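Recall that a protein's primary structure is simply its ordered list of amino acids. Everything else, from secondary elements to tertiary packing, is in principle encoded there. The following example makes that idea concrete.
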Amino acid sequence: MPDVPKAIREKYPHHRPEFIMKKEAKNVKQIDASYESENEWCQDPVGYFVIKVFYDDGYFGARFHENDGTPKVDIIGTDAEEIVQTVVREKLVSSLQHAAYLGHELHKAEIALAFRLNFVQDSDLDFEKKTEKKESDNLPE
């Protein structure tokens, strides 16, 4: 597997097992991606997360709240995959939609930390603007 950097292979040896062979695509169905949040979104019955980046401390995290607003758990780190896998392992999500959303938002937080970009949950990153904040506050600059 020469196309995968050694550091990645060592950190995630299971991601690209050598037995996976490139095969010719025959009769593969193509589906155009779409999402209508007003019709498709449903709240996870387990709870929700607020994601925050701590620039000066060099990490980001997700605070889990029960649906009544009670904060219960902080999961912190520097790697989005590690945080989201911890969320799944701890059973803090019950829907695939919520898990996918968390993975997306945590990856944004990881990028925001690496490039010191203002992170606002549920908003696009602005790659043109660095932030001087010590931590994200979910407000646009």
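The beta strands are 48-54, 59-65, 71-77. The mean pLDDT is 89.
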